[in-house]
């Protein structure tokens, strides 16, 4: 672990106080990513996600500077998370009850701080605090570094999904099931 790395959990109310920092870091990470990665779209997404019951954020700071974060929320029974999923999927795969699946929505680290274990530390910190038996996320198929990291952390691809948001790319749907023999 990096010397001086501080991880901190935040509720949605606490995160409102650092909203501009979260957006600024997002824009640095996705600079040049195109219209889908715009400030306006991300502020709307983040604002909607922060309203979700059980939303949780973990930030990573070094010397008081935000260098990364991860956030997500449990999927409610009438979730739209699975809208646009590509068939076939296992029977019952998209059934949600509010306690089955935690959706990991963002995991990002400032480019200058990558490949130093910060993403893994954020991932493990958030996962350790979640009671849901499975976690899902969406990752671009061409994001090789993220794909490799997630696979090394025990994630598996199930299918693909294209959200019905304007200019949304197609993503791989990854799942990580909690090990029933651990307290994870």
From TrEMBL:
InterPro entries: Acyl_CoA_acyltransferase (IPR016181), GNAT_dom (IPR000182). Keywords: Acyltransferase, Transferase. The keyword Acyltransferase applies. The keyword Lyase does not apply. GO terms for molecular function: acyltransferase activity, transferring groups other than amino-acyl groups. It holds the Pfam family Acetyltransf_1. SUPFAM superfamilies: Acyl-CoA N-acyltransferases (Nat) (SSF55729). Its EC number is 2.3.1.-. Residues 7-180 form the N-acetyltransferase domain. Gene3D superfamilies: 3.40.630.30. This is GNAT family N-acetyltransferase. It comes from Micromonospora profundi.
